[in-house]
Every structure is written in C-alpha cells, then in structure tokens.
Design a protein that fits this description.
11 strands; about 120 residues; four-stranded antiparallel β-sheet; mainly beta; about 0% helix
Length: about 120
C-alpha cells in the first residue's frame, strides 16, 4: 500500500513537501517514483529514486525545483517542491517500481498510490 500526503493550496513561488508512506513489502528493495496528472492532461513522470536512494532522475520540467528523496528506515519517499508554478497544479501520485532502479516509464510501475492534490495559485 502507498499513502501519499502533503498536498494543498500554495501560492506561486512557494514550497510544499509531499510524502508517501509504503507498507506491505520490504521498502528498501524497490525504486519509487512520483507522477502527476493535471486536469485534462495525461499522467506524466515527475521524479524517481533507486532503492538505495543513490540514483535519482527528475523530469526536465521540474529539474532544479523539485527533489525526490527517501528514508528507508521510515518506509517513506518524499518530493520537495520549491519555486512552484501555476503549471505544477495536478494530482500527484507516488508509485513503486518493479525493479530497484528508477524509471520514467509508467509500464515499470507495479503499484500506484492514491493521489494528493497540489494547487498552485497566482
């Protein structure tokens, strides 16, 4: 199970941290990721992190503003979001991956969490 939290309403330029708590499997054995879906758009990749936390990838649209991290002792993955823009408004989903290495591709996701809504206002 994956439980995301931390979404909310924030002004443009502000910051927010999303959390995703995992249960049911050995958390440190699989990669984790964040995806998002804006109204009327398809779900898109945001960031992913390897099982150890060493390997990370970020979408170009968030690079330098968002940072993914994980705490294997707490079975939690985070997404620190800064310098938020209006176009970051979306439902954010955490996902566990089939392997220990991060991937941008939804096909490599084996479980999706329920989303958390992030709304950026002007």
């Amino acid at each position: 199970q994956l439980q995301a939290s931390g979404g909310g309403l924030v002004q443009a330029g502000g910051s927010l941290r999303l959390s995703c708590a995992a249960s049911g499997r050995t958390f440190s054995t699989y990669a984790m990721g964040w995806f998002r879906q804006a109204p009327g758009k398809e779900r898109e990749f945001v960031a992913a992190i390897s099982s150890s936390g060493v390997g990370k990838i970020h979408a170009d649209s968030v690079k330098g503003r968002f940072t993914i991290s994980r705490d294997n002792a707490q079975n939690t993955v985070y997404l620190q979001m800064s310098s938020l823009k209006l176009e970051d408004t979306a439902v954010y989903y955490c996902a566990s991956m089939r392997s220990n290495w991060p991937s941008r591709l939804p096909i490599n996701v084996d479980y999706w969490g329920k989303g958390t809504l992030v709304t950026v206002s002007s």
